Amino acid sequence: QVQLVESGGGLVQAGDSLRLSCAASGGTFSVYNMAWFRQAPGKQRELVARISSVVSTFYVDSVKGRFTIWRDNAKNTVYLQMRSLKLEDTAVYYCAARVRAGDYDVWGQGTQVTVSS
Q1: With 0-12 CB in 10 A as exposed, 13-18 as middle and 19+ as buried, what is 5?
Q2: What is the average pLDDT score of the chain?
Q3: Using CA atoms, how far apart are residues 53 and 104, in angstroms rounded to an integer?
Q4: 16: which residues sit within 8 A by CB, 6+ positions away?
Q5: Are the CB atoms for 22 and 108 separated by under 8 Å?
Q6: What per-residue confidence (pLDDT) applies to 60?
Q7: Would the pLDDT of 97 be above 90?
Q8: 88 contacts: CB under 8 Å, gap ≥ 6
Q9: Phi, psi of 31 (to 5 degrees)
Q10: Please, which pLDDT band fits residue 51 given cuts at 50, 70 and 90?
Q11: Pairwise CA distance, residues 37 & 76, whole Å
């Protein structure tokens, strides 16, 4: 059974940087497509960035050039480096894995990122 645990969230000021980590256990991490989602208060959850098992990446337009996703298969961990944070980046950030074909089906518990002015 695959489990994901996020860490690294916190309260930062606009313009600061933050790195999120997502540690996976219980499966074969290297073959999973991984992603970071976020959900802001009153808004739907949205995909922020994803990285495939062959390390191709995708970013939503609002974070391009500011966020970087990468994975370390030796550590079973996926990261999200966030730079030049904006107030609108405030959200709960979730790590997700696509273990079976279809939608992302394994989720972490989420980590809060709050950006203040």
Answers
A1: middle
A2: 96
A3: 14
A4: 85, 115
A5: yes
A6: 98
A7: yes
A8: 40, 62, 115
A9: -95, -5
A10: very high
A11: 18
